[in-house]
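Slack export, channel: ligand-projects

TW: morning all. Re-posting the request from yesterday since it got buried. We need the structure predicted with the small molecule present, not the apo form. The ligand is zinc ion; the SMILES is in the block with the sequence. No rush, but it would help planning for next week.
GE: picking it up
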Amino acid sequence: MPPALRLSPAQLEKIIEHARSCKPEEACGILAGDFEGNVQRVFCMENAEHSSVFYTMDSSEQFRVFDDIRREELEIVAIFHSHPHSPALPSMQDMELAFYPESVYLIISLMDDMPECHAYSIVEGQSEEVEITVVEE
Ligand SMILES: [Zn+2]
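GE: finished. pasting the full token output, ligand included:
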């Protein structure tokens, strides 16, 4: 099945709000939902690097989130992070560290006043844009 990303305006707002609150550091998190890419839960997470150009999830927080997702019988739909000062394109590092080929990678750029979001499927060093559909639940 081709990857897809469908979320509600409120979920998108929550992600952008998290990205803004972490600026100038990169923000990160996980979107959980079903196999069709419908997001049901937004997990805003801490960037353990506290860096403006790089992120890693805190391993114990990541463990807790994965556990929640499993218990709620959801799937990992997407991994998101922000680019405080650059466009919403995967960096070299984002490509190299894309360890979840089934997941969508959502990037939020805060470079301009208006946040810009793009989603990608990254498999074996190749990225392909995935359409983001914003729909009311
Ligand atoms: Zn990045």
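GE: first-pass observations. The longest strand covers residues 75-83. Residues 81, 83, 91, 94, 107 surround zinc ion (CB under 6 Å).
TW: perfect, thank you
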